[in-house]
């Protein structure tokens, strides 16, 4: 069926012509049903949607303006919009909200964040008790990941001396953290 024929049928439906409505249904139902079925993916729901589409067409035929667009596109838009409305109505918003609670939050909870900050402050306080060069060596070794040899080269001390510095510094940090 051509757009002009559909446009004429819609115009007659707007005047309340039941025969034109039946002809419009016979000519356009397969296409509109396919649209509903493609969106809803359920034959029963698509059939119900199609009924509502034709009710809407009967009620809104007067609002169709032939000059504003093609009549098949107008019909397809009604079918598409009605199907999307039904699709949205399938799952209540409450179900969506309930499922949100099941999502895992990757962030630590407020209590864990507070504990972590407190431990960080304690470590900073204990680091201040170390000699400045020892504190820098510990940070570079255990935060930045530098090797003992790299640290020994940076500080200009023998490798075994650097190992001793780090070992003694870690012992002092442990004593401080246990207080």
Automatic annotation (TrEMBL):
Domain RNA polymerase sigma factor 70 region 4 type stretches: 121-173
Classification via Pfam families: Sigma70_r2, Sigma70_r4_2
Protein origin, superkingdom: Bacteria
Gene Ontology terms: biological process: DNA-templated transcription initiation
Keyword Transcription: yes
CDD domains: Sigma70_r4
InterPro entries: RNA_pol_sigma-70-like, RNA_pol_sigma-70_dom, RNA_pol_sigma70_r2, RNA_pol_sigma70_r4_t2, RNA_pol_sigma_r2, RNA_pol_sigma_r3/r4-like, WH-like_DNA-bd_sf
UniProt domain RNA polymerase sigma-70 region: residue ranges: 24-91
Keywords per UniProt: Sigma factor, Transcription, Transcription regulation
One GO molecular-function entry: DNA binding
Family: Belongs to the sigma-70 factor family. ECF subfamily.
Protein name: RNA polymerase subunit sigma
